[in-house]
Amino acid sequence: MNYQLLIAEDDAVMSGLLAELAREEGFLIQICSDGKQAYDILINDPPAALLADVQMPGMNGIELIEEANTVCPGLPVAIITG
């Protein structure tokens, strides 16, 4: 079974690299470039896991993870920065 991974990253090159690596591991990928868009996805189409950048427009990664804990309790999350 393939699990959906939501990648919230505003750098297109980085999100592309992360998506490629995750696809190689069998994940289905959904990419968004800002925290508010990621939040909408969490509400409407919750993924199996979330990978979020710290610095994003609209809502930063820390705020996004706090919201994710509210709308998707127990969702595995990882945060990246660069």
Structure notes:
- It contains 3 helices and 4 strands; from the N terminus they run E-H-E-H-E-H-E.
- The protein has a single domain (4-80), classed as Rossmann fold (3-Layer(aba) Sandwich).
- The protein has a 4-stranded parallel beta sheet with strand order 2-1-3-4, sandwiched between helices.
- Helix 2 packs parallel to helix 3 (61-71).
- With 82 residues, it is α/β, with parallel strands linked by helices.
What's this, in brief?
With 82 residues, the protein is α/β, with parallel strands linked by helices. The chain is built from 3 helices and 4 strands. It starts with a strand and ends with a strand.
Descriptive labels:
3 helices, four-stranded parallel sheet, alpha/beta, 82 residues, single chain, Rossmann fold
CATH superfamily: Response regulator
With helices defined by DSSP (H or I, 4 residues minimum), what is the helix count? 3
Structural class: alpha/beta
Helix content: 40-55%
CATH architecture verdict: 3-Layer(aba) Sandwich
CATH topology category name: Rossmann fold
Report the sheet-strand fraction: 15-25%
Quick one: overall form? Answer: globular
Number of strands: 4
Could you give the distance between the termini? 31 Å
Largest sheet: 4 strands, parallel
Radius of gyration: 11 Å
Count the domains: 1
Topology as a string of helices (H) and strands (E): EHEHEHE
At the first level of CATH, the class is: Alpha Beta
Mean of residue pLDDT? Answer: 95
Low-confidence regions: none
What spatial order of strands do you see in the largest sheet? 2-1-3-4
